[in-house]
Design brief:
This protein is an alpha+beta fold. The chain has 26 helices and 22 strands. The protein has four domains: about 160 residues, Glutaredoxin (3-Layer(aba) Sandwich); about 325 residues, Glycosyltransferase (Alpha/alpha barrel), CATH 1.50.10; about 80 residues, Arc Repressor Mutant, subunit A, CATH 1.10.10; about 80 residues, 3-Layer(aba) Sandwich (Glutaredoxin), CATH 3.40.30. Helix 5 crosses helix 7 and helix 18 runs antiparallel to helix 19.
């Protein structure tokens, strides 16, 4: 018999709908039952692409005896952390207070009032590698609540007080200074792995927000060291197993220093953020390799992660047929069977395929040798080698598609979609590829049309059903994506929608008393803490994203309220930016914009004419992180009031660009080359 999760839309929750555990979805009902039974609540949090979540389900949640113990001693709640980032962030912070570490699956024991008093991550069904057996944990925590309730409540109270202090701390009186910008770049540079890029000696995460800032720092200061750190990191990731050499797109993170062995799940947000990063690096360096990564990653998302409605799916699993990474790894005989002996020898040299393998007896494809070296070894030209490799990749891709594919988490999350919307839109503008703009346009239309109810943005969509009030990060990411789409598409509708959503975001998430944004809206359900996470994790902080878009829209609209609230927000993260810049990369990017004199670019011209397009293309030829761009078609009714376009007219009937700083403008021009010169100074 299925449990209560059978009525949910989350693929992760539905994966547990036939467990013998009497799972409840998050809500008031399980806590009422816990109060009536006077038993604690077992909260289990994970996500569909999580390998160890699958392991714990197979070992414990599908075990009849363990499930019976859970049902007897607890009221059990299962949460998809991607649908409910508020629940995840609250109890993950509690877990870190308790243990000093976190991760998923997350297991937290709560009082019937929702207050945590014990937590951990993965627990095995029997004692293993120093980890206690899950049944022993269950019995001990039930006994602790039943026989020593006062002590359990004391721990819970202390944890909740700590959580509230962290979420509601008052912003400092003094704003940050521009010194933070250079200090942050120096601190990041000191931590770079000079051999393989990135940061860390064992596990490495992509951390795109950090490298985005280092690119900005290079452009602002000319610091070649910052650019070298970015290029080294991007080059090594593109060569490594963290990048899918056959199908395109990035896996979650690397388990080793060299970027070779990934955790194999593919997350939409990683691919959105890394696409933008490689695109910006292409603008700065002109490296064709970076453009290739952008195009292959976007093609992967278009091909495998895009719904018929235009939304983007959330993730692809690490596992298939019960094995981690099985879909992505190769044996030498498989390569030979597909390519033949000679081509197999060449491709195996390029991608490091060997009899002994590099992952559980099989090989993760990676750029093991330079193309020039392999070409020399086989006595051929580089061009001939490239033809062989490209054709072989196509054949291997076709063969791989005959395997059992990892499951796809096909829920559509507004935040993650906003990030990918930006990636497609900006790539379309930078690469002059209208196909990407059309995909972005379809995504924006879908989100604005189907993931809103009575004007209120929602968090998640699947199978025709949108639900859950959107969080701050959902609003901010979608606003950011709409701004990027206006810049690429030149349709004022997208900018008008962005401004309207920003006003709603302020109304729902800004707290005047605390002078800061919260992650949940004023209309959200009451939780033990109103969460506010200012640090970047795999995703940029929602608060940082909100500040970033507020600063940009303040320039577009001359809305002083937007600017004021953004400026006030910086005070609460001054210490983190000064002492822990790796944790707040997106904040420092926003601060860089705040202290800059952003270029205000207005292009007045017919949206569908070539002369307008040529001016826009010049804007995107350069990496200009601290700029805003507004397009205005004088033949279309004006939808947006902006000082950047007020009283602007075409010169002699030709599309005309206006480049300004603080609303003081250079001479208008219809000449693309003159525009390029103005942007360069």
């Amino acid at each position: 018999m299925p449990n209560r999760l059978i009525h949910e839309t989350s693929p992760y929750l539905l994966q547990h709908a036939h467990n013998p555990v009497d799972w409840h979805p998050w809500g008031d009902e399980p806590f009422k039952i816990a109060q009536e039974r006077d038993v604690p609540v077992l909260l289990s949090v994970g996500y569909s692409a999580c390998h160890w979540c699958h392991v714990m389900e197979r070992e414990s949640f599908e075990n009849e005896e363990i499930a019976a113990q859970m049902n007897e001693l607890f009221v059990c709640i299962k949460v998809d952390r991607e649908e409910r980032p508020d629940i995840d962030s609250i109890y993950m912070a509690a877990l870190q207070q308790l243990t000093g570490q976190g991760g998923w699956p997350m297991t937290v024991i709560l009082t019937p009032d929702g207050e945590p008093f014990f937590g951990g991550t993965y627990f095995p069904p029997d004692e293993r590698s120093g980890m206690p057996a899950f049944p022993l944990i269950l019995r001990a925590m039930s006994d602790a609540y039943r026989n020593n309730k006062e002590e359990a409540q004391k721990i819970a109270t202390q944890l909740v007080e700590g959580l509230r202090a962290n979420a509601t701390h008052t912003a400092g009186e003094q704003p940050p200074t521009s010194d933070i910008l250079d200090d942050a770049a120096n601190a990041i540079a000191d931590r770079v792995d000079d051999a393989f890029g990135g940061v860390g000696a064992e596990i490495k995460f992509p951390q795109p927000m950090v490298w985005e800032y280092m690119l900005r720092h290079h452009v602002r200061t000319g610091d070649s060291g910052a650019l070298n750190a970015v290029e080294l990191t991007l080059d090594r990731m593109a060569e490594g197993g963290i990048y899918d050499q056959i199908g395109g797109g990035f896996h979650r993170y690397s388990t080793d220093r060299t970027w070779l062995v990934p955790h194999f799940e593919k997350m939409l947000y990683d691919n959105a953020l890394l696409t933008k990063l490689y695109l910006h690096a292409y603008q700065v360096t002109g490296k064709a390799e970076y453009r290739r990564i952008v195009e292959e990653t976007l093609e992967y998302v278009r091909r495998e992660m895009t719904s018929p409605e235009g939304g983007f799916y959330s993730a692809q699993d690490a596992d298939s047929e019960g094995e981690e990474g099985k879909f992505f790894v190769w044996r030498p005989n498989e390569i030979t069977e597909i390519l033949g002996d000679e081509r197999a020898r060449i491709v195996s040299r390029v991608y490091g395929v060997a009899d002994e393998g590099n992952f559980e007896g099989k090989s993760i494809l990676h750029k093991a040798e330079s193309a020039d070296k392999v070409a020399n070894e086989f006595g051929m030209s580089r061009d001939d080698l490239d033809v062989i490799v490209d054709e072989s990749k196509r054949l291997l891709f076709e063969a791989r598609n005959q395997r059992v594919e990892p499951l796809c988490d096909d829920k559509i999350l507004t935040e993650w979609n906003g990030l990918m919307l930006h990636a497609f839109a900006e790539a379309g503008a930078v690469l002059s590829d209208q196909r990407y703009v059309e995909i972005a346009r379809a995504n924006a239309s879908f989100l604005l049309g189907s993931v809103r109810r009575e004007g209120r943005l929602l968090r998640t969509y699947r199978d025709g059903e949108a639900k859950l009030n959107a969080y701050l990060a959902d609003y901010a990411a979608l606003i950011d994506g709409l701004i990027a789409l206006h810049e690429a598409d030149r349709d004022p509708t997208w900018l008008t929608e962005a401004v309207a959503l920003a006003k709603q975001m302020v109304a729902l998430f800004w707290d005047d008393a605390a002078e800061q944004f919260y992650d949940t809206g004023s209309d959200h359900e009451r939780l033990v803490v109103r969460p506010r996470d200012v640090t970047d994790n795999a995703l940029p902080s929602g608060v940082a994203m909100a500040v970033d878009v507020m600063l940009r829209l303040a320039v577009v609209t001359d809305d002083r309220e937007f600017e004021s609230k953004a400026a006030k927000s910086f005070r609460s993260v001054k210490y983190l930016m000064a002492h822990h810049p790796m944790a707040v990369g997106h904040w420092i990017c926003a601060l860089d914009f705040h202290f800059s004199r952003p270029k205000e670019i207005a292009v007045v011209g017919r949206r569908d004419r070539a002369d307008t397009r040529r001016l826009i293309e010049k804007v995107f030829k350069r990496y200009l992180p601290n700029r805003v761009l507004v397009s205005f078609d004088p033949t279309v009714a004006e939808l947006l009031e902006s000082p950047l376009i007020a009283e602007r007219q075409m010169l002699g009937g030709a599309a005309t660009a206006f480049v300004c700083e603080n609303y003081v403008c250079k001479l208008p021009t219809s000449n693309p080359e003159e525009l390029a010169l103005q942007l360069a100074t």
